[in-house]
Amino acid sequence: MGDGDKSPPTPQHHPPPPAAHHHPKIPDPKHAGGDHHHHDDSDRDDDTQLHRQRHHHAAIAKGVAIFLLLLGLAALITWLVYRPELPQFTVSAVSIYALNVTTATVPPLLSASLQVTVLLRNPNKRVSIHYDRLSARVTYRDHPITPATPLPPLRQRTRSLVSAAPTLGAQAVPVAAEVASGLAADEAFGVLGLRVVVAGTVRWKAGAIKTSRKRMTAACDVVVGYRGGAPGQVPMLSAPRCRVDV
Hints:
Mean pLDDT: 85
Shape: elongated
Oligomer: single chain
Helix content: 25-40%
């Protein structure tokens, strides 16, 4: 090349500007984990409320248990102080107005009409006795020969004796053949064994305290002299034996 030729100018390379340094943003410790603390506070409040509810329920259960314990203790003390005894029953008189057996039917029919005088004694010093839903019937060899007859309710004071003289029967009842034959044989012999049954509910009352109703059955076995004939009171050949079950 000649001197006249000029070389193209060499481009100048400038170094790039230094890169800007980005520093990571440090979270403010006052705000760091703000949501986490919010959840912790909410959970803590729920736990506190649940603990209070459990404590409240436990206190109620404890109070109910103490009340029932005191109530049972009071009932036990009352029972030990008053010691209610069972009523005592006996039969003082029996009248037979009819005792007829019809064997023409199967089974035989028995038509009986009797009046029994029952004495009830309350042996308790401080406790009265209340009888409800009472009924009376007569059986022979464990077979009823009269239907159950309702009796009025009775309130018996302490250390008292009351009597009831219901008329039972007058309605034919079916009986087994052995009952009909046995009754005819005993009547011919002149000795008749009967059982007077009084059933119902009983409860004891001492002041304002009443017991719950209990099912009661009183059974009195009597032996009377009977050969038929004129209706009326029949002699009792032995002292009645009575048993009271509650």
